[in-house]
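User: Please fill in residues for this 266-position structure.
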C-alpha cells in the first residue's frame, strides 16, 4: 500500500503532494509494485489538529479524480475517519477501501455507512484523537492484550453493521510509547485470526527515528528491517512511503520462507 499524502504537514515531507501531481506519484508507485494506493488529505501525526471536513475534501477531490482517471483499475484506499468524506468519494469514483484510524470511533456515521455501501474497511487501534492520543498510553493490561480486546469489541460492531471485509491495523505510533510499539510488533502474531488480514504501518515513523536519534529522512533502511519482522509476525499488507524498497524486502522474505524447502532455517 503506497502512501500518497495530500497534506502540507505530514511528518515525512517527501511524501507530500497535491492535486493532479498525485497521479504522477501513483504512476511511480504502481510501476514499483504497489497494489493499493492510499490517499489521505488529513494529517494524523501525533499532535496534529484536524482540518475541517470541507478542507479535507478540497484537498482530496482533485487528486482522487486524477488518480482514478489515470488508473481506472487501480485499487484505491482513502485514509479518513469522516463518513461524509467517504460518501463524497463514493459518489465521485465508486467503490474503494476505507482506511480509518479510529475504527469508527471518531464518527458515529462511519460504520453504518461502510456497511451500507459494502466497502472494504481498515480498522486501526487508537485511543483519543491524533491531537491527544499520546496522553493515553497507560493501559490496564499489556499493550498486546489491550489491542486484542479492542478488536474483539470491534468485530462485534462490524458484525452488527454488516461489515464483512475488514482488515486489522494494530496502530503503531498511535496512543503507544516507543516501548509499547516494539512489544506489540513482537507479539503481533497473537492478533492473527483465520481469514483476517493485518495491515502494518511503521514506515519512517517516530518509533524508528526517535529510538535511533535520526530523522524520518534517514529512516529508510531501519524501516525495511521492521517490515521484514512484521511479515514474520503475520503482516499481510505493508503501508509504505517507499514502494520499491518494500517490494524488494517482501521478495527477500518470500524467497527465504516460501521458495525452497528449509530456506527459513538458513
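Assistant: Residues filled in for all 266 positions:
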Amino acid at each position: 500500500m503506497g502512501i500518497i499524502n495530500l497534506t502540507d504537514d505530514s511528518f515525512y515531507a517527501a511524501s507530500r503532494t497535491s492535486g493532479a501531481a498525485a497521479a504522477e506519484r501513483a504512476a511511480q508507485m504502481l510501476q514499483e509494485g504497489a497494489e493499493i494506493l492510499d490517499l489521505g488529505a488529513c494529517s494524523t501525526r501525533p499532535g496534529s489538529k484536524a482540518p475541517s471536513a470541507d478542507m479535507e475534501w478540497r484537498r482530496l477531490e482533485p487528486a482522487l479524480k486524477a488518480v482514478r482517471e489515470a488508473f481506472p483499475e487501480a485499487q484505491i484506499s482513502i485514509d479518513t475517519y469522516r463518513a461524509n468524506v467517504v460518501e463524497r468519494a463514493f459518489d465521485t469514483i465508486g467503490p474503494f477501501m476505507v482506511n480509518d484510524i479510529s475504527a469508527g470511533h471518531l464518527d458515529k456515521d462511519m460504520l453504518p455507512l461502510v456497511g451500507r455501501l459494502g466497502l472494504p474497511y481498515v480498522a486501526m487501534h487508537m485511543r483519543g484523537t491524533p491531537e491527544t492520543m499520546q496522553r493515553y498510553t497507560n493501559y490496564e493490561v499489556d499493550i498486546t492484550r489491550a489491542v486484542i480486546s479492542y478488536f474483539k469489541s470491534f468485530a462485534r460492531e462490524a458484525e452488527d453493521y454488516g461489515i464483512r471485509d475488514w482488515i486489522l491495523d494494530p496502530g503503531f505510533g498511535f496512543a503507544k510509547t516507543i516501548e509499547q510499539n516494539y512489544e506489540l510488533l513482537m507479539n503481533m502474531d497473537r492478533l492473527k485470526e483465520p481469514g483476517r488480514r493485518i495491515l502494518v504501518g511503521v514506515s519512517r515513523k517516530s518509533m524508528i527515528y526517535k529510538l535511533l536519534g535520526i530523522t524520518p529522512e534517514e529512516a529508510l533502511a531501519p524501516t525495511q528491517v521492521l517490515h521484514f519482522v512484521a511479515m514474520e509476525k503475520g503482516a499481510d499488507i505493508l503501508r509504505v512511503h517507499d514502494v520499491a524498497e518494500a517490494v524488494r524486502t517482501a521478495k527477500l522474505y518470500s524467497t527465504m520462507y516460501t521458495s525452497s524447502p528449509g530456506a527459513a532455517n538458513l
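For context: The mean pLDDT is 93.
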